Amino acid sequence: MDLYDLVSSKLGKDLLQYLEDQRKENAQKTGWTEDDNEDNPLSVLTMEELELFEEYALLTYQDPA
Predict the structure, then answer these.
(1) Could you give the 3-state DSSP secondary structure of residue 62?
(2) What burial letters (b/e) apply to 18-42, b meaning 16+ CB within 10 Å?
(3) How far, in Å, CA of 11 to CA of 65, rounded?
(4) What is d(CA 3, CA 25) in angstroms, rounded to the nearest whole number?
(5) Half-sphere exposure (Cβ direction) of 63: Cα atoms closer than 13 Å
(6) Has residue 9 got a pLDDT over 80?
(7) Contacts of 16 (CB under 8 A, 6+ apart)
(8) How many CB atoms lie within 10 A of CB 57?
(9) pLDDT for 31-63, tens place per residue?
(10) Domain spans of the chain, in order of start
């Protein structure tokens, strides 16, 4: 299992699909609280896994303008 697959398994879905879903969900959210962080699946990722997540997030980001 490579790092991409490991991150996907921890997120519960494919990494790219997770990113797309989160962008749609967060586009409508206006207020963030500490409780939002408690259920965040990113909290279980290692630094290496977070770096991969961030890399894919930046590569797939499209400015909503």
Answers:
(1) coil
(2) bbeeeeeeeeeeeeeeeeeeeeeee
(3) 28
(4) 25
(5) 1
(6) yes
(7) 56, 60
(8) 15
(9) 656 666 666 777 778 889 889 989 998 888 877
(10) 3-60
Q: How far apart are CA 55 and CA 24, in angstroms?
A: 19
Task: Write down the pLDDT at residue 41.
Answer: 77
Residue 29's pLDDT band, with cuts at 50, 70 and 90, is low
| CA atoms within a 13 Å half-sphere pointing along the CA-CB vector of 27 | 11
H-only helix segments in the chain: 3-11, 15-27, 34-38, 47-60
Question: In angstroms, rounded to a whole number, what is the distance separating the alpha carbons of residues 34 and 45?
Answer: 18
Write out the two tokens for 42. Answer: 């990113």
Residue type (1 letter), 51: E
